[in-house]
Design a protein that fits this description.
nine-stranded mixed β-sheet, about 400 residues, alpha/beta, globular
Length: about 400
C-alpha cells in the first residue's frame, strides 16, 4: 500500500450466540470424544464454552455491523460498499437476494454494492478483508463495511476433529486513513499460501504453508517473525494450533489462545474476535504488530496490522461480551417488565431482541424507561432504549449504572 492510498482497519466488533453452554452440554459430546479416542482433558484441548444462537445469520451480521458503525462514529450513508462473508450462503439462489436485502435493511444502508465471499472456509473473513483493502487502495471505494456471520446448521455439526464451533459474527470498517480515528490499525501487508492438492476435507492444516506465507509477508513488511506482538489465529483445539504455529517459526508467547476456551471456534470470525478482546483488555501495544491468520486444509491466509500509535479506547468494546454476563436477577426482572409493558405473552423470547424488534411504541418505550428508573434508580437514555441493544444488553447497562452503597 502506498502512502497516498494507506488502508486502515477500524472499529472491529463482534457478537456471539446468545446461549452460552458448557462443552459437556453439547449433544453427543461424550460419544464424540470416545469415538476419536481423545484424552478427556478439557484443559489440554482448550474445551470450554460454546455459544449457540436461535437467530439467523442475517440478524447476527446486522448486530455486528451496527456495533462497528456506532463505535467508529460512521453514519450508514457514509458506507459505500459491503463485503459479506460466510462459510455457507443459502443453497438456493433466491435466498441470496433475501440475505442481502435483510442485511442492508437492518443496517439502514441504501443500495450499496455487496460482494459475497465464501469457499475459503474459515479463512473467508481474511479473504474478504483483502478484497476490501484492494477496493480502498485502488481508490474504488472509501468506506467498506466487512462482516462475517455463521451459525451451525445442525447441532451434530458443532463438533469437528479440530474444534468446537460457536455461532457468531464479526465486523470492521476498511477505509483510507482517517486522522484522529480511534481503534485504527494500519494495513501493513497480507499474504497467502495454497496447495490445491491438500484442500480436501479432513486434511490437516500445514505448518509448511504457514512458513511459505510468512516468507512472503515478512519480505513485504521488511520485518522478522520476532517482531510480531501477537498472532491471532482461529480458535481451534489448543494442541493443534500451538504445535503448527511453533513449527511455523512463532514463539509460543506470541500466540493468543485464551479465547479457545472462552469463545470456541466462530468459523471465520476468530482472528477479529481475538483482536477485539485483546483491545478490550488493554493489551494492544500502541504501534504494535498483530497478525490475523487462518489455516485450513490446503490454505493459509494472513493480514498484518499495525496498531495506532495511541492507546486504543475501550468504550463500547467490552459490551460485546459483557452482554452474555447480565446478572440473572436483573435480566429476569427486565424481561418480565418488558413483557408487561409491551403486553407480550410470557412465552415471548425478549432477551435476545431489541425493543424496536419487539414492536415497542414510543409510549411503551417511555414506560420501560420509567419502570427501570423507578425500580433501580438507574437512568437509561431514550436513545439507548431505541438503539441496537437487546434486552439482555440493557440489563447489563442497568447493572453497570446501579448506585453503589456509600
Amino acid at each position: 500500500m502506498t502512502e497516498t492510498n494507506r488502508v486502515v482497519l477500524r472499529a472491529p466488533r463482534y457478537v456471539l450466540g446468545e446461549i452460552s453452554m458448557d462443552h459437556t452440554e453439547i449433544k453427543g459430546f461424550a460419544e464424540f470424544v470416545d469415538e476419536r479416542q481423545m484424552v478427556p482433558d478439557a484443559r489440554m484441548w482448550g474445551w470450554g464454552a460454546v455459544h449457540r444462537t436461535e437467530l439467523d445469520t442475517a440478524t447476527l451480521a446486522v448486530r455486528a455491523g451496527r456495533r462497528t458503525l456506532q463505535a467508529a462514529g460512521v453514519e450508514p450513508g457514509e458506507v459505500d460498499a459491503v463485503v459479506l462473508c460466510s462459510t455457507a450462503f443459502p443453497a438456493e439462489v433466491g435466498g441470496h437476494g433475501e440475505l442481502i436485502a435483510s442485511v442492508l435493511h437492518g443496517l439502514e444502508l441504501n443500495a450499496v454494492p455487496v460482494t459475497g465471499i465464501t469457499l475459503n472456509r474459515c479463512a473467508t473473513l481474511l479473504t474478504g478483508l483483502q478484497v476490501a483493502a484492494t477496493m480502498v487502495a485502488a481508490g474504488r471505494r472509501r468506506t467498506v463495511l466487512v462482516i462475517t456471520a455463521d451459525r451451525v446448521a445442525d447441532e451434530s455439526a458443532r463438533m469437528a476433529d479440530f474444534a468446537l464451533f460457536s455461532d457468531g459474527a464479526a465486523s470492521c470498517l476498511v477505509t483510507r486513513q482517517v486522522d484522529g480515528a480511534v481503534e485504527s490499525y494500519e494495513w501493513v501487508a497480507d499474504a497467502h499460501a495454497q496447495d490445491p492438492a491438500s484442500m480436501g476435507r479432513g486434511t490437516e492444516i500445514s505448518a509448511d504453508l504457514a512458513k511459505a506465507a510468512n516468507r512472503q509477508l515478512f519480505a513485504e513488511a521488511g520485518i522478522g517473525v520476532e517482531e510480531i506482538d501477537g498472532l491471532l489465529h482461529n480458535n481451534i483445539f489448543l494442541p493443534i494450533v500451538t504445535m503448527k504455529e511453533v513449527q511455523a517459526g512463532f514463539d509460543q508467547s506470541q500466540l493468543d489462545t485464551s479465547n479457545i476456551t472462552r469463545v470456541g471456534h466462530c468459523f471465520a470470525a476468530d482472528p477479529l474476535i481475538n483482536l477485539v478482546d485483546r483491545q478490550s483488555a488493554g493489551t494492544v501495544r500502541p504501534g504494535g504488530l498483530y497478525l490475523l491468520a487462518s489455516s485450513v486444509s490446503g490454505l493459509r491466509m494472513c493480514v498484518l496490522l499495525r496498531a495506532d500509535g495511541r492507546r486504543p479506547t475501550h468504550e463500547g468494546v467490552t459490551e460485546v461480551h459483557k452482554s452474555l454476563d447480565a446478572d440473572p436477577t436483573t435480566l429476569s426482572w427486565l424481561q418480565t417488565t418488558v413483557r408487561e409493558v409491551l403486553q407480550l405473552p410470557e412465552s415471548e423470547d425478549v432477551g435476545t431482541r431489541t425493543l424496536r424488534e419487539l414492536g415497542a411504541s414510543s409510549l411503551q418505550t417511555v414506560g420501560v424507561q420509567y419502570r427501570i428508573l423507578q425500580e433501580t434508580s438507574v437512568s437509561v437514555e431514550m436513545s439507548e432504549l431505541i438503539g441496537s441493544s437487546t434486552v439482555a444488553e440493557l440489563a447489563v447497562l442497568v447493572d453497570e449504572r446501579r448506585p453503589t452503597a456509600a
